Amino acid sequence: MKINLEIVRTVLKQSLGFDSFVASFITEVREDSNHPTAGITKDGLLIYNPEFVDKYVSCMEDLFCLIFHELLHPMFGHFIYDNGEIENIAADAIINAVISSVFARYSAYGNLFRKTHDERGLEGLMRPGSAMHNNRYNKIYCMLYHNYNVKDAMTTGELIQSLKILAQGENLSMILLIGTHGSPDNRFSQENLVKFAEELREIAKAGMSRSSGTYKSIIEIFMEALKTHLSIKKLLLQKFSTKRKIDKFKELFQKKKIGVTPIPLSPSKRDLVLLSAGIYPCYFHNNLTKTAKQDRGLAIYLDVSGSVNDYLPKILGILKNLRREITSIFQFSNQVVETSFESLLKGNIKTTYGTDFNCIAKSILEKGFDKAVIITDGCASMSYDLREQLKNAGLVTITILFDRANSCYDFSLFGDVITLEDACA
Hints:
This protein is of the alpha/beta class. It has three domains: 5-227, no CATH class; 251-295, no CATH class; 297-424, von Willebrand factor, type A domain (Rossmann fold, 3-Layer(aba) Sandwich). It has helices at 5-16, 21-25, 50-56, 60-72, 85-101, 104-107, 111-116, 138-145, 156-166, 190-211, 216-227, 232-239, 269-276, 312-319, 341-345, 358-367, 384-392, 409-412, 420-424, and strands at 28-31, 38-40, 45-48, 241-242, 249-261, 284-298, 300-303, 328-332, 336-340, 371-376, 396-401, 417-419. α4 (60-72) packs across α5 and α10 packs antiparallel against α11.
């Protein structure tokens, strides 16, 4: 199979969605006979060995397995382990099981791995459908591919330790490893890992509902790996920052510009029209992008009515991870008071002991925030008129509930509602 960028994008978009960030991450595809299988760099370059692809990759499902295998390595943090043979085998075994089980539909149940690995012995851990009965690796195999015999899922580290004992005497060098191993300098950026994790978590959740408990152990491992990239700090900074409030952190973005050069690096539509007419321009107006920074902030509204006292230590425990980036926070009861973050962390509370959401709505509208973070017990309400005004303004929120609350109708209209326990996970 001949691989190009269009085919790669098509495979990923059909499986992950046409607006998928993961699908858009790969920006270039290149053959490399020196690479044993394939690999993806932190800059989105996919390299592949044409002989390996010709031998094993015969359909779109095989290509999905190959691409996704490499994309999942950084999601599991496999670069933090030693670059030994056992560590690499354990990493590949978990990744192949995730692709075969969680993404069964798009990988044809791990079709590629059935061709690249033998069904018996240690190699059988690397693929579905192996013959592992009466085998010393059977318990690990059941954990990876079944929903019985194993009560507790293993972490990658635990699997590595188990294999170090069980695989003594095995010829490890004969086992094929897919992708790039032992390249810590090629780690994906934290920003991209967060975006990957958010997208894959939603896909995995949908897969869990369809599987009805099948592959429970490997799904738990996968979800736990994704959670490590979805801390409340990362979630808030990446998704709920607003340019209307300036704090101490900056957001990177891609800025488009036109660059004039005698070489057609990325010709504009005007240049392409001239070329199609047989006219070679003296200078090309290239469409270029560069990384730029912009100041951002978080509009955090903290409920300081009487019920907050028992939960304030835990709430401050979450917020203190943002102390380097956030300068101020909005305390609310029946009124909104903006106070310095350091003052809040010292326990300085300003409250009327009552609660309503109208004061939040008025503050958001007055300051022109497009996004906000609400931390509350949910025991308040907002007038219909103010709700409509916030809808018309296009407000997006995340609401964190404490005091055993599990719903908040007013703010559920504008975004996700999660519990304090989920935020601390």
